[in-house]
Amino acid sequence: MIIDLHCHPNLKSFNSGFPNPKANMWEKIEHVIENKFAKSINDLTLNISKESQCNLDNMVAGNVRVFHISLYPTERGFLHLRNVPTALLGKNKINITQSVVTGYSADCIKEQKKHYKYFEELNKEYNYVKNQQGKSPDGKNEFVIVNNNNELQKALEKDNTFIGIITIEGTHVFDTGAPETDALSKEALHKQLTDNIQIVKNWEFPPFTINLSHHFWNHLAGHATSFKRPINGLVNQNRGKNKGITEAGWHVIRELLSTRNGKRILIDTKHMSVESRKEYYAFIENHNYINPNNKIPIISSHACANGFKTLDSSVRENDIMAKAKTSRLFKWSINISDEEARIIHDSEGLIGIMMDKGNLGGIDLIKELSTITDSMKQRKAYAQLFLDNVFQLVQAVGEKSGWDIIAFGSDYDGTITHIDPYSSASELPKLQQDLKDYLENKQYKKHLWFDYTPKEIIDKIFYKNAMDFYKKYFV
Questions:
Q1: Which residue among 6, 77, 230, 452 is least crowded, i.e. fewest CB within 10 A of its CB?
Q2: In whole angstroms, what is the distance from residue 228 CA to residue 450 CA?
Q3: CA-CA distance, 399 to 455, in Å (whole number)?
């Protein structure tokens, strides 16, 4: 069995048509490449999969029994490109480019560019996912959504049942990060945020987690640099990048974590700037010290290690290509430092290791691994790199319980540069076997196994640690 803490089985199907989606979450969706220009864009972005990676049929094939369904109204920073590429290509070619890369229909992209109605889109996406529950088209499997660990355990008792847990990527969904947000008074903004959070908490299936930040400024918290060349030449992440948490952001944090207004929604720290993370971690450390029987865990659902000793050292250099060119790990500050691994451990939190090779390894290393033509050699090389990220975090904690924080969060269908031999969720059993074989055959870094066997290590990463987390916090 596999548990995936972060994926998007809903995104391509939900955005398959406007005003109504044309596809369901079981379907394989291939990106439309219907003319010469679209083919040229496809050729330039071959590292990004051009078909759905975690549609529900792929989840079944990969035995991904439990998965966090990340709702994501597309940030307009993705759609409104910098002036130069827009002027050079023209609107029509820009639309084609975005459609080829995302797999969204051109009609959806055109509509989304007209407005910033994030909260309206969020509710539509949530209702779409909720209504997808039921039997697969062939009648052999079933998709359900659960609200807590008790419901999860009951659902797992049924064979051929695949279980979704609702999450959200980015608090822009509460209708911030728009030009109109700048004009709101403090009182009006707080009321809007409070009201929208309350609506979400009143859903039949309120989200388990939400990322405070994503790729662009949302008026609530600074984000980390996430785009490399050539994407950073097309979109502009600069506003709000590397800033801390705003007053409105703290209001959102308190409303989400409160249990007085409904279920607690945990903050997912992936994509937050180092400054925002430091501020949030101090808040959590203080809360957990005062409330040892009501701890709030820190979760980073889809992340990698950067190898820096401290949070501060990870931002001494700017996150530019040269910073990660020759390193084995990807050294940008969006990834997790040793200090941060210990903070997450002390909070009883989780880190989901992701399937984006561009975040797992340094730039030159990934180029080298991508050119390996022998498939088994390439699989072994990527298995070692995946494990290097895991061992970096375990070593940072420095004790056996370091293994308790490691989980799996693929980010499939999140427009990632996936690990070549494991292009979709259907390939994950192969990844599990490759990791286990690498540990056994190489006795790789055995001094950091802390007496666990390779099978026990792989089981902890791919489902046991998440299960233990659900027992404590999915209530």
A1: 230
A2: 37
A3: 19
Contact call for residues 437 and 373 (beta carbons, < 8 A): no
> φ, ψ for residue 416 (rounded to 5)?
-95, 165
Distance separating alpha carbons of residues 475 and 466, to the nearest angstrom: 14
Query: How many Cα atoms sit within 13 Å of 440 on the Cβ side?
Result: 11
Residue 16 φ then ψ, to 5°: -85, -5
Domains within the chain, CATH numbers bracketed: 2-8+28-35+50-73+118-473 (3.20.20.140)
Q: Output the six-digit token pair for 321.
A: 């290509």
Pinpoint the alpha helices (H) of 157-273: 186-201, 247-257
Write out the two tokens for 193: 């945020």
Q: How far apart are CA 399 and CA 412, in angstroms?
A: 31
| Separation between Cα atoms, residue 438 and residue 26, nearest integer Å | 33
Residue whose pair of structure tokens reads 């009951």 in the numeric block: 154
Both tokens of 331, joined, read 């050294």
Tokens of 268: 């997912």
Residues of the chain by 3-state class (helix, strand, coil), percent to 5: 45, 15, 40
Which token pair is 95?
């639309």
Six-digit token pair at 364? 């030159």
Tokens found for residue 234: 């097309």
Q: How large is the C-alpha radius of gyration of the chain?
A: 21
CA distance 150 to 158: 14
Instruction: Give this prediction's pTM.
Output: 0.96
Helices (H) and strands (E) in the chain, counts: 19, 10
Closest CA to 21 of 114, 162, 127, 113: 127
Kindly compute the dihedral angle of the four CA atoms of residues 239, 245, 246, 247, in this order, to the nearest 10 degrees.
Answer: 170
Q: b vs e for 57-75, b when ≥16 Cβ sit within 10 Å of the residue's Cβ?
A: bbbbebbbbbbbbbbbbbb
Beta bridge partner(s), residue 165: 68
Strand extents, DSSP E, 75-186:
134-135, 142-145, 161-169
Task: HSE, CB side, 13 Å, CA atoms: give it for residue 107.
Answer: 9
Mean pLDDT, the chain cut into blocks of 10 residues (475 residues total): 98 96 96 87 85 97 98 93 65 86 92 95 98 97 98 97 98 96 96 98 98 98 92 88 98 98 98 98 98 97 98 97 97 98 98 98 97 97 98 98 98 96 98 98 98 98 98 98
Count Cα neighbours of 73 within 13 Å in the Cβ-side half-sphere: 25
Count the Cβ atoms, other than its own, within 10 Å of residue 3. Answer: 25
> What token pair was written down for 140?
């052999």
